[in-house]
Amino acid sequence: MYGGETPMEVRIVGQDYDRNYEMAQEDELEPGQKPMPLGEDGLLYHVAPGGSPLFQAAQAAKDWANQQPWGPVRWNDEP
Fold this sequence. Notes:
There is one protein chain. The protein has 79 residues and is of the alpha+beta class. The chain has one domain (11-66). It is built from two helices and two strands, in the order βαβα. It has a two-stranded antiparallel sheet.
């Protein structure tokens, strides 16, 4: 912690629906608002924790996480 780094777990979560649209109450939706289309692999991604927006590709979610003040992230699938 004193060296300027504090390890924390960051996950990229894939879901087959627009969580923001599903969680919105009827009165919070804009007229004609529709869920975000799923990505090419049939999923939408977000970063947890982090309060990220939704992304149509896992790499876009990783890129977002790396640009946050707490980034960059050392991912398990990278050397």
